[in-house]
Amino acid sequence: MRDRLRSPPRHSANRFGGGINRVQSPWRAQTIPYISIVMGSLLPFILLADVMPILPPLGFMMLIGWRIMRPGFLPLWVGVPLGAFDDLFSGQPFGSAILLWSIAMIILELVETRFPWRGFWQDWFTAGLALVIYILAAMAVSGATITSHMFLATIPQIVLTVLLYPLFARIIAWLDLFRLARARRVG
Amino acid sequence: MAPPSSRRSAGFSKRAQYSVFTGYLLAGLGALLGLGLLALSLWQPSSLAPIRGGTQDAVATVGEGPAAVRSAGNSTWEKLSGYFYAGSQNAALREEVELARIKLAEAEAVAQENERLKSLVALAESEIEPVAVTRLVGSSATSSRRFAYIAKGRINGVEVGMPVRSPRGVVGRVLEVARGSSRILLLTDSESVLPVRRSSDDTVAFAEGRGDGLVRIRLINLGLNPLEVGDVFVTSGAGGYYRPGVAVAVLNELTPDGGIARLVAAPAATDFVSVEPVYVPEAVEASETPERESINPAETED
Asked: Which run of H or E residues covers position A159?
């Protein structure tokens, strides 16, 4: 239901809002994806999980989300700096995210050049597959002796990660609208 | 359906083709760099610690806020749940009884320990002053390794190998120290091994993390399994890191070579943890073994 007391919506110049004397802010347009990925890497650090891994790898989820929803925005080599940042806080041995994120970027790029037409369900499938492989590969390179118990302990994390992708897609879409909003006044 | 505009074909433009090629080249080199760093940090886990240390310091201070909120939240939740079941004091009482039970088992262990020590040369034992008392500020919540972080580091006197405990029992051991923060290997990590004994007698065993929140109790002397469900295990003091008689785990399930045990001190439920000095530094120095193999049965002091 609309709030009738509020002033009527101003006429927007395009779907990103603003008036005719507004343009996109270049800083905002260029940095929001990186900031959101870095925040995704930092957030799990603050939560205390003593029993088993519970949170999805939020940094990697953001990376995959931006990669799928805005193909071509993130450069192909972006896994190196962002992965290095993720490694500082994830508890994995340093280098694991650099390796896995770079490989993920290359594979997604190759897949996309072969299959350029995509829909939401296919995106979810791609992201889900990438995330499941990432979690298992990260477990393999974590330096832990892998037992069946450990594998069982990651299943809730894997399920949660795959099911959360649509929510992250919404969040990224919202961030993308915010990123491209015509916020800077000209003249 | 995404429009085909997402396809960024290089076409016949040499410049575009080169930039695509450069992108792949850089990404490939980045992956190789990652592989090299990964191999280095698996081979020499402490070699890249300084890089991690500085940033960890910065974030650990930020983590203090959420840690305070977490402990407040824990107690609020306990009060709520206590009210929900049998009045708000129920939760507090239950916790007290639980603590008392642990203390009782520990006291039993201490009495037994004293008896044994009296027979040996009189060993001067004093109350241990903790190096630092702090909160757990963070953890590796997405990784399959189990690490926690505290916002006390080298400047507070924390050193590698120091045991970390909560009022209930052992939490883990300091693995890496930065200037103002340190990384703790929790007991539930699959690489953590702790020498323990049953609180009621001298049955010695190793408590190994399984990576899923439980620890595996592996008896050193195999034969008939003397354990029973509900047995409390305390640190034995072997290896020299932990002082003897601190509660570790309660046996949950029996297996042919020992059992599966639940930890007494769940790190997420604790308010404060204390970092204690290494119990017998001489024993640790004498063993001179790498971190992971440091617990050597030959070094037992009993």
From this structure: helix A148-179
Domain residue extents for chain B: 58-125, 132-284
Tokens matching residue B82: 């206590």
pTM (two decimals) = 0.79
What is the C-alpha to C-alpha distance for residues B266 and B187, in angstroms, rounded to an integer?
A: 10
- pLDDT tens-digit series, residues A71-92: 888 999 999 999 999 988 888 8
- What is the rounded CA–CA span in Å between residue A16 and residue A18? 7
> Which pair of structure tokens corresponds to residue B143?
């990784």
What does the alpha-carbon distance between residue B54 and residue B56 come to, in Å, rounded to a whole number? 5
Give the type of residue at B58.
Answer: A
Structural contact between residues B146 and B188, judged by C-beta atoms closer than 8 angstroms: yes
The radius of gyration of chain B from alpha carbons, rounded to an integer in Å, stands at 24
Interface confidence (ipTM) of the complex: 0.79
pLDDT mean over B211-220: 87
3-class DSSP assignment, residue B247: strand
- Check if B38 contacts A (Cβ < 8 Å): yes
Q: In this structure, what token pair is assigned to residue B244?
A: 């003897």
Partner-chain residue, chosen from A89, A93, A109, that has the shortest CB–CB distance to B59: A89
CA-to-CA distance for A70 and A146, rounded, in angstroms?
Answer: 36
Plot region of B163 (φ>0 → left; ψ -120 to 50 → alpha; else → beta): beta
**B132-284 CATH choice from 3.40.50.2000, 3.10.310.10, 2.60.40.1470, 2.40.10.340:** 2.40.10.340
B75 and A CB contact within 8 Å: no
